[in-house]
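Quick question, first post here. What does this chain look like in 3D?
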Amino acid sequence: MEVGASVSEQPELLILSDGESPMSSVAPGLFSHYRLTEVNSVAEAISRLTGPNPPEYCLVPGHSNTISETIDCASLLAQLPDAVLKIDQYEQIVWANRAAHRLLNIPANGEASLPKLFELWNQAQIVGPDFCPVNSVMATGKRAKTTVRLDEKSFFEFTVTPIPGNSPSGGKLLLATLRETSDEVLQQQKLDAVHQAGLDLGDLDREDVLDLSTYERVELLKSKLLYYTQELLEFDTVEIRIVDQESGLLKPLLDFGMDPTAATRELLASPQGNGVTGFVASTGKSYLCEDTTNDPLYLPGAAGAKSSLTVPLIRHDLILGTFNVESPHPGAFTATDLRFVELFCREVAIALNTLELLEVEKETSIAASTKRMLCEVADPVDEILSDTSWMFERFSAGDSETCDRIRRILNHTQDIRKLIRDNSMICNTESVRTPRLGNAHPHLIGKRVLVVDMDVEVRKSAHEIMEQYDMTVDAVRTADEALRMVRTFAYHVVIADKSPPDMKGSEMFRSLREIHEHLPIMLMTGFGYDGEHTLVKCREMGMRKTLYKPFIVDQLIKSIEDAISNSTGSVTL
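> Answer (accepted):
Ran it through. Tokens below.
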């Protein structure tokens, strides 16, 4: 050093003291050559070495590699991709690494005049969960973490940790890190939005929706699906198809932005010849088409589409349909898109299932209402038919005009009952879930049965059971009414109580056979004693089957089928 050099011109020597090494004995020998600065911690040493105007030399005790390790640590902090700052308890910036300089637009060598962190970063807004992380650290002495938002799509994780030492102003030192978490936060927001969308899709108020027609329900769901596809998933082109579980056809439910020819194209849930949609519907596997021009499965959908993403709609391992989106750019869909679409499709499948259940409930309600109506009108209609048949028989030899009018009354009465029953059939056949039982017993469809019993519950039960199989049922109380009905109308089978109130059962059987020699007749009985041996006498006259009350459905239906198939006489209705 030149003689007369000022102290400020001397190189600075930073001495890291460990409190035990004989630095005091070394320092006097260096004082005349260096400007000495002593620190008591590695953190303070790093702060000086990486701060403005760093010392020219650093002296550390112990192992020879300590200084290199210290300098390496300082270099690592400076090179970290996350913003790292040293602040005091008043949020005054003491030191910042390069990433922090870039993020906060800190001018080079500007730490000496830096404002507080959030004065410099004034566009940032703490959104929680800790709204005062610095205060939390000062109060607890433990690390605090929170989220900071710059704008709608920029988020940072702000972590504050206490460190030893004091700032130049005397405040406690804190280590602050700012890590960008925009992708993580936006993905979580999207997950939450997908979940909320699912709740909204499934929020089909039972009372309100039951008042809607099937078309109105579907339109309500379609409007919600289109809204969330465009606003939440941000897709401009979408096609949703539903699998017909009987035929395998993929029926269009919703399309937007698709070519009309593609939207109406007939597709099956089959992996061959039905495009990506058919493949997904048959396998239940999602399919990401990166380049439509080189994918053998792809069939043209949206005009100019270069990539597509197709996901199955699955509920309880049943494939309900497919969800397809397309883009004019190749490779437009990422694994993240696939993940969100699959999550969204789970909610769509639940909504479709809910809609299906509500539809079933409505159909069941309509069917039950129709059934109640049939039960209510059955007895009055039977009474009208019985009384009208009495009038027809009484005036059949007299005024022909009167007979014609009575016949018209008979026909109109039967038409009323037929219309009610036909409407019930329409309600059931519109749904594949509730097929008419007559489909399984085609030989019973259109057959006419007369039931004779004093018990109204037996007559009502006969109507309920047999009309499910598309049979026409007339029911009367007495043997006299039964004989009159058989003379007026033609029946395929008569089922009568063995003990009518107005004559013996065997006499009724004989009289019915006198009217129609080959008419199948089955007598009903409880489990009591047959004192008059009616059943034995009727078997001697040709009765083949006895039925027991209350009806056992399978036995009743089989007995009617057998009686009709074994009948040797023709019946003209």
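The first helix runs from residue 23 to 31.
Residues 1-7, 429-435 have pLDDT under 50 and may be disordered.
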